[in-house]
Amino acid sequence: MRIPHRRLNGIHDGFTPMLHDSAYSNAITKENAMNKKLVLIPGLMLLAGCTTNPYTGEPQVSKTVIGTLGGAAAGAALGAAGGAIAGKPGTGAAIGAGVGALAGMGVGAYMDRQEAILRQKLAGTGVRLAREGNNLRLIMPGNITFATNSSEIAPQFYSTLNAIALVLREYPETLIEITGHTDSTGSEEYNLQLSQRRAQAVAQYLIAQGVAPNRIIARGMGESMPIADNSTPQGRAMNRRVEIRIRPMQR
């Protein structure tokens, strides 16, 4: 069953899919690899600051580096276009892939730095941080974020959200998915609406703190995604939560 969700103004409702290309390392010979060393550096310098906005398709300058394998695929496309323009179709793709792969070496480090800062700032707040590949997931228990049956953020949680917003502003090359969750007490429709309002409240708060709205989606999941047993008080308490998933933008 498709879970309906409301969308905030200016907030996107999807993420750019990751690219995969495992063939590059087997596509060049030793001799070609030596030759490419002569041309990779100028190309890398040009590509390092040039990316495409994943939503508008417009070119833009960015500090982000793309994922290693995704970068290889994107670089191959750019290189192929360059080779065709130069009158040598097919020769540019392998070079472009190498440039993209080199440019993409920093995604893991980019997320590592965010993780380290978030762990430091969130220590002792009750917010749990989980690393999932190159994605980060913040799990905020309902008892510290909202009062029972309320979608108004608890004032004592403002400082925690302020710290999260600060990191999100300092590392702008990520997409942010905010989801609200409830336990199974009450009607399914009520729980869905409450979880939507809570997710939107967190999104609006982060936007008010300067996080760009076009990086954020917010939706309620109701009781559909429990992480614990709803038959116990402890389990229900764990299921009442808001989660923030932070994902690197893929170029």
Automatic annotation (TrEMBL):
GO terms for cellular component: cell outer membrane. CDD domains: OmpA_C-like. Residues 133-250 form the OmpA-like domain. InterPro entries: Bact_OuterMem_StrucFunc, Gly-zipper, OMP_bac, OmpA-like, OMPA-like_CS, OmpA-like_sf. Coiled coil: none annotated. It is found in: Cell outer membrane. Keywords: Cell outer membrane, Membrane, Transmembrane, Transmembrane helix. The chain crosses the membrane at residues 65-86, 92-111. This is Chemotaxis protein MotB. It holds the Pfam family Gly-zipper_Omp.
